[in-house]
Amino acid sequence: MAARTVQSSVPAVLALLGAIGCGNCVAAETGADAMAWLKKIAAASRQLNYAGTFVYQHGRQMETSRIAHMSDASGEYEKLETLEGPSREIIRNNDNVTCYLPATKTVIIEKRTIRHFPALLPEQLSEISENYVVTRGGQERVAGHDCQVIALEPKDNLRYGHNYCAELATGLALRARTVNEKGEPVDMFVFTQLMIGHQVSRDMLKSRYAGLSQSWHIDRAALDQSESAADGSGALRSPLAGFKKVTEMRRSVPGRATSVSHIVYSDGLAAVSVFIEPMSKSPPNAGATYQGAVNMYVKSGTDQVVTVVGEAPARTVRQIAESFGTKDH
Q1: Which phi and psi (to 5°) does residue 256 adopt?
Q2: What phi, psi does 268 have (nearest 5°)?
Q3: Domain ends where: 166, 197, 218?
Q4: What is the mean pLDDT of the chain?
Q5: What is the reported pTM?
């Protein structure tokens, strides 16, 4: 909770207000302490060496993955692989990402565009307090490690709440929950097994498919997308509280005759992407879809299609889509 300041010009009541003043000091210290923990969580995922198995749960579905991460003076290195369903292995060298899909014998090479658990927080957290109340909760135990609960409560219903449990010594997020306005979990990441520190070796980062993929199809389409500055015309007719435009560009996508406008809005934590493209002969189905905390809304007009996707409630994603000037059929 934000601290409140009590002022009085009457000396006689100062003693009576003393208890209130101390309570406010505690609230202020608690808020600062919670933000310090949040910064520690954000830094730990990038700076620590760790390896383990985690589960991603959304609705009734659960997916298990294994991750190994190392960091040194030259940057970050990571291996992420699925343990259920079709095999998928992602090797990251700083922002260079190689994804191996053995089922289709395909290698996808691209630049890093999304954050994976436990690196879910952005590096810059300065705007978090504008849209969320950050508080420190109790201590729990996850994957055999004691951890500190840090909660982000949204100040309105345009964004989700978040709950992290950070390992006490290092601050690494052992669990991350996204919750709706009722406090119900929308999705959750949680480590089931984890080791932190010097036990993590370079061998854990080696790809099991790099040597087998010499004859596989290599997809560099994401790297071939050219970007150019937009004219700045992309703007919400009705600005959404807390969401600011952070980037706007035009992308040339292979296989499409015309470029696509891409605009990103953020509230300092959640990012929502808006894609605007001319109406095609086979337009996508209009309406809403979702997976876990990620919602998507497609709005078709007479001459263009607006697609909005991001980790925000369905009402927010739809409101952004509706705020762009397309005319319905």
Answers
A1: -120, 140
A2: 100, -15
A3: 218
A4: 86
A5: 0.84
